[in-house]
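Deliverable D2.4 — example input (structure tokens):
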């Protein structure tokens, strides 16, 4: 999975989380179950971003809104071009 796809999936997970939070306030009678949903979607989001939100160049974790990797300083949106790599990490 590349970072672009991972970011899209992460956005979907984020919307699911917001949906659960909305439900939490809309249906006070189901708050027990809904908080389980909130917890699970947070957990999935966390595991997902830990596993897939990685710099395509150096493989370290990057934030969802990072355009440049804070570890190697390269643009994370660009696909890695092995032929054009000037520096090796
Ligand atoms: Zn990097």
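Example output (designed residues):
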């Amino acid at each position: 999975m590349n970072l672009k796809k991972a970011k899209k999936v992460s956005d979907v997970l984020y919307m699911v989380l917001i949906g659960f939070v909305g439900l939490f306030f809309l249906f006070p009678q189901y708050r027990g179950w809904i908080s389980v949903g909130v917890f699970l979607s947070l957990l999935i989001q966390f595991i997902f971003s830990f596993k897939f939100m990685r710099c395509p160049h150096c493989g370290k974790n990057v934030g969802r809104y990072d355009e440049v990797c804070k570890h190697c300083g390269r643009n994370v949106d660009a696909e890695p071009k092995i032929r054009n790599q000037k520096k090796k990490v």
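Residues 55, 57-58, 60, 69, 71-72, 74 surround zinc ion (CB under 6 Å).
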